[in-house]
Amino acid sequence: SKETLEKKMAYESQRMVTKMERQAELYWFSQWEVELQKKDAAEKHDKNTALSSVDENGPLDPLTDAQRSALREAARPAKGCKCGSLSHEYVNHPTCILYRDVRQYCIANSIRVANDDGSKKGERMMRKKQYVMMMQRKKNAKNATEKASIDRFIKLRAETDATKEEAEFVLEMEKIQGLKMKKAVLLAAHYGDDDDSTLITTSLCTLVLSAVASLMDRVPEEGPQVVLENESKLAVGEKSIMEDDNISKQVESKMDNNGSITPNQHSPNSEDDSDDDSDDSDDDDSDEEDLPLNSLLLQNNNHSKRSVPAAATKTKSNSPPPSKRPKLQTPPPATTTPITVNENKKAAAAAVPSPYFLAEILKHVSETHGHLFQEPSHAAFAWQQRHRSTLTSPLSKEVMFKGNPRNPGVLSFEKIRFLLDEERMSRLRDTWQNPKKQKMQQLPSQQVNSSQPAVDNDTIERWNDEWIVTHLASDAMTGLRHEIDVLQSLGLLSITSNGKLVLKQGWEKHSPQMVLQEMKSAWGSTVDVHNLFCVHDGIKKSLERKWEHVVGGWRFSSLEEDDGMMDDDEELVLEEEEYRLRKRIFTENYNDWVSEKSGMGEFGV
Q1: Which of residues 91 and 42 earns the better pLDDT score?
Q2: pTM score
Q3: CA-to-CA distance for 79 and 82, rounded, in angstroms?
């Protein structure tokens, strides 16, 4: 029953989430142990390092990438370091855990890091300045007030130098994390003045576009020759039309050579046969006679919905006598009905993305931005959907103000990659390249009794992989499938017949304005010089080449269009003031609707 199926699906979903969280926990514990082992090995070779206990250097529990990122962005405490340790103050200290993963990555890949000695260099500078301070006191000291001033100046100078060294070290670590480790450092940026600044967060739309562009670079162009059912029908229909056209040409050529009447000629007795009919019927008959044979077949198939032989052999009462026109040979019956161009477009629109490409996008977003991407608030989610909507008709408030189906603020992509291991990805890729492997196959022991079909374990695993990817991309988990549908309807993404996701030709023109605002304030080439947001370079270059930021808005550049330059009247311009005004009005209306729906009045009663 329906209730049983829903309970079963809920149980399987919960079991999958529990398994994902367990695998994530085991992964972080194993990574933490590896870091501690490498740290202890490094300390044995360093006699100057006196602090080796874990509790003095930071927390005992392992840190995830999301927790590390949150500690890195936190403010400096009054005492100690951001990591929670009281043994040092700056993150470039050798025992600090905030950038220990990047340090060990550099050691494993033989990457030389500038200013990696951290506190050692700071200590040398402190000793040098202390020596200068003592010499200054001996030479120029006159009273205690002057000595105190000199001490404060030297201490401030040392703190300034240490802060500068820390900033240089952090920038070096962030560049390595973004460019080498392919892991985003930032996902939001403040735009505007300090008094009136706005936090611009990279949306899921940008992350999906970046992931698709990355897949287009990694996945080769060739793929399985999967042809949709409608496309195969179209090919068969076109083939039958070509055969009918060749047959009609051969028949007409034979009639011309024998001196018979061609379809474009009329017999002398045709006027007598058509006296009882009207002039309109004569025109219709002459038009049908002038049409080639393949056009008559198409008309009969589309209107009368009869088979080709029946349509071809039936004649009208006002047609010329059969004795005065040689009987045309009936072409062989077509097995399928020819498909029109509109039906072919519908078939292309009905293409669905392959589970393999959905899994690749899920894994890419999880590994690159999963530790930073947080689900937007209900108001922000509703605005993103309304801003990108192509509907012009008014919508109900329940539909227009529909909030985020997931909990705002959660890291929905953080742990997704732990379910998409190499074994599962290999099966998904093999299924995409060989779709027949996923079809039902009977076991050899049960082939005798065909009334009870069974499948082998490999096929069951492939079905299970597809179900897991479908659930991970659903609205309950990440909302990736809905985002892909939205981008496809906007004309940004295209799905090939074999399920591959690609950027559609001319996708830049259909980009939402919110993506352009993000590029301007967050991850554009001018503001994100070191690619700390890890947005694909192809997305940046394409948008920056097509869209020009002018005073007060954006202007689409059509210099590379195939049809030439665009006229001034047809120029596409997006105004920033209008965008901000629409967003502000929508947010206010959303808050009013939520307050009214919750029973909250103007005074909170």
Answers
A1: 91
A2: 0.74
A3: 9
